[in-house]
Amino acid sequence: MKRVVIIAKGEVQRVGLRDEVERIARKLRISGFVENKKPYDVRIVAEGEDDNLSLFIEQIKIKKYPIDVEDLEVNFGEFKGEFEYFEIRRGEWQEELGERLDAAGKLLYRSVELSEKSVKLTEESVRIGHTMLEKQDETIDEIRGLRYDMKAYMEQRFNKIEQEIVAIKEKIGLSI
Description:
Blueprint lengths: L1 E10 L5 H11 L3 E7 L3 E8 L1 H10 L3 E2 L2 E11 L8 E4 L3 H80 L4
Parallel strand pairs: 2-6
Antiparallel strand pairs: 1-3, 1-5, 2-3, 4-5
């Protein structure tokens, strides 16, 4: 059993990192806490099995919008057994509410960005689809033209062959 104190740096406040850290810690049976550290960082104190702590450290290196953990300062210490579970230590309710609204705003803005990209991709797909249909129509028209030309050519050839057969029969004296 070990203890680790971690300072997470990057886009880590007002983005939902603490919730993710808590989820990961509970999944790995790690006890301790996570809290915002003024002005921009997040402090994590965690205790647990060595292997679980190693996994924990790897899994909290989150780079999933809007969270971007750029660096972790990791300091190991002696296990103290002072935590019953893992928790988020929160500040004043106004600050926490502001943080939740900021995170929601970032996610909403990102959702709008992705929706706009989706609309552009859909418009491009429709344009490509129309182009493909036009090409398909051109191909069908070309095939119809070839069929018509082939039919006319074959009828002409069969008529010529029939005429030649009639001529041959006349020359050898067969009646038709």
